[in-house]
Amino acid sequence: MSIDKITSDDQLSHSKDVIQENIDQLKKLFPEIVSEGKIDFKTLQQILGEEIEDEEEFYRFTWAGKSQARKEAHKPSTGTLRPCKEESLDWDTTQNLYIEGDNLEVLKLLQKSYSGKIKMIYIDPPYNTGKDFVYKDNYKDNLKNYQEVTGQIDSEGNRLSTNSDSDGRFHSNWLNMMYPRLRLSRNLLKDDGVIFVSIGDDEYDNLKKVMDEIFGEINFISNFIWNCSTGGGIRPKHVNKTHEYLLMYSRDKNSLLQLNAPLSKSATEQYRLSDDFGGLYREKDFVFKNSSTNINQKYFIECPDGELVTPKDGYIYRFIKPTFDEALSENKVVFKKSTNGPLLNNKGEQSGWNIYIKKYLGDGKGSPLSILPKDIVGLYNNGTSLVQNLFDNNRVFENVKSLELIIYLLEMILGEDDVVLDFFSGSSTSAHAVLEFNRRNNKISKFFQVQLPHPTESNTIAYKLGYKNISEIGKERIRRVVEKIKETNPDKSVNMDLGFKVLKLDSSNIKSWDGNPDNLESSLFDSVSNIKSDRSEEDVLYEILLKYGLDLTLPIEERDIQGKKVFNVGMGSLFICLSDDITSKVAEGIGEWKEECDPEVCRVIFKDNGFTDVEKTNSVQILKRFGINEIRSI
Ligand SMILES: C[S@@+](CC[C@H](N)C(=O)[O-])C[C@H]1O[C@@H](n2cnc3c(N)ncnc32)[C@H](O)[C@@H]1O
Fold first, then answer.
1. 185 partner at 20 to 30 Å CA-CA among 179, 198, 481, 607?
2. pLDDT score at 517
3. Rounded CA gap, 493 and 497, in Å?
4. 539-556 confidence digits (pLDDT tens)
5. Could you tell me the pTM of the whole model?
6. Does 373 lie in the same domain as 497?
7. How far apart are CA 551 and CA 571, in angstroms?
8. Does the beta carbon of 142 sit less than 6 angstroms from any atom of ligand 1?
9. 3-state helix, strand, coil in the chain (%, to 5)
10. 232 lies in the same domain as 113
11. Per-residue pLDDT band at 1 (split at 50, 70, 90)
């Protein structure tokens, strides 16, 4: 009896193959286009008939390198995410993730585990002002490129340079960076999920077009305007820019529910009256100017002294009669004496009354405003000084987004227990916002942060304080926020998830899975062990989770069985033992542990050379006896 080996050809050794999935979808939709397993494009064209655009000139958005960027989004990653317990908080229990790495590779790696699972994505990419660093992907070998960019290995080229506006491909470079990332991020969203992207004037128009293409024009929700500064500073020659944008798209507009956001302070202040039924309220005109002749909203109402009133010409009531009667019975109608109101009595004379309706403050929420309420969301200054205070008055990061701005977005979208992803996380404002949102509202949403360990410049305060890259700043901010919550809210903090798991992007742990073509020669000599010598069992464990598409925050238990380390992932859904000299007694122990957990499905993975042939055969038989049929080796 043998164990199937997971080879480099196996689907499991790659991140999700998006192209294949799309082809499968096409085949399902149009079975007639499949000929000997291949797509017959001509037949597809015939089926689509008039829907095919065959004019030379038609409306489209393109740039230098677009088709390559599209291909890049579909190429699987052969890298992995390596756990880093030392830098994490509450490793065993937390469901928050902090991932260090280039976000393109990371997004590819997350496809299997998190497709359709993320409720909200917020990103704040480089705005391409001509002065900022824009990551240049190297399609041939993006993992090596990543190690060069982050200074992990020597580089000949100067990859940390900024994208200068004198570069002939200035906008194309930025779009080539953004396109595959946005494309992959869409797959991760739930049907009722949304993405917000912060942007400035430089790339607003390109971003809008590229988002329309990727998310669909139909899923555009809003272009929010954030009044982010008060101006000031040196007087510009032309216009003092005091705002920027936030584009919002849904994955599927039909699935997106009613949006609610906190009312601005100036709006809340209007609710000054109060009653025992609904609390704070304001009085709103029940009769308003409208030239409609709709008789449903013009009827007689009896006032407290018996006078019958109806709207003058050019005015109507807010509600039809049944709705008014209901409001009246609920004590929501207010009659006030007035000598010049918009009502006439039944003799056609000026009435002595006006009518108002009570509008309750309720939960203090209303529809979000596309010009974000200034008194709630704050300015850049608020974000920057908040972080400065957290870091003992040291300005370790510039242009931090305002915490309240991100909380306003979270208020619109989050339910009880959702995941918020930010893959340009900088100083971790969105992680801070999720923690603060949970604290205020007693919710349990989670954050996933992705940030390039981009080296800090040696002349910066951050560098001098020992933060050698931006991820260090991001992780430290979360630690400091957590400390503060524990200090100021000891009672609440015990029920909050105040930890985060750190994972770092790297090449595969398994030699034959390593996508680096330069390693091909040497890997021929590595048959002794398939796992790279500098990698731990935990490293391999996380790679297997990614490749199997399991949640990286599943509970993982560890037991010693007959002197061998065995991991139990997700209460018995996957057992992994990567030790040498495994005996059938270990298999017996795994079988018994599986019985304890009683999972719906159970899989077991060993190291290929971890057994002798006899022990392998016996182990497989034992596991099958326990009802475990999926047994693989690497
Ligand atoms: C504008 S900042 C985000 C600031 C953040 N919203 C805040 O409030 O602190 C953009 C961040 O994206 C990071 N970044 C740029 N390219 C990246 C890439 N390819 N992968 C991951 N992070 C990247 C940069 O290092 C920078 O920290």
1. 481
2. 43
3. 8
4. 999 999 998 899 999 999
5. 0.86
6. yes
7. 13
8. no
9. 35, 20, 40
10. yes
11. low
Final residue of a domain: which of 74, 103, 123? 74
Shortest-distance atom of ligand 1 to CA 103: 20
User: Is 514 near ligand 1, meaning CB less than 6 Å away?
Assistant: no
Which amino acid type is present at position 599?
Answer: P
353-405 pLDDT tens trace: 999 999 998 888 999 999 999 999 999 999 999 999 999 999 999 999 999 99
Q: Which residue, of 54, 74, 94, is where some domain finishes?
A: 74
| CA pair distance 556, 597, nearest whole angstrom | 13
Say if 521 falls within a structural domain.
no
Q: CB neighbours of 51 closer than 8 A, spacing ≥ 6?
A: none
Euclidean distance between CA atoms 613 and 616, whole angstroms? 5
| 88 and 63 both lie in a single domain | no
d(CA 455, CA 104): 18
Q: Which atom of ligand 1 is nearest to the CA of 137?
A: 19
Q: What percent of the chain has pLDDT over 90?
A: 70
The more confidently predicted of residues 132 and 448 is: 448
Amino acid at 85: K
Query: How far is the C-alpha of 517 from the C-alpha of 127, rounded, in Å?
Result: 34
pLDDT for the residue numbered 158: 46
For a mutational test of ligand 1's pocket, the pick from 77, 452, 475, i.e. the residue with the most ligand atoms closer than 8 A to its C-beta, is: 452
Q: Average pLDDT for residues 244-262, to the nearest whole number?
A: 96
The count of other CB atoms within 10 Å of the CB of residue 95 is: 21
Label residue 36 exposed, middle or buried (CB < 10 Å: 0-12, 13-18, 19+): exposed
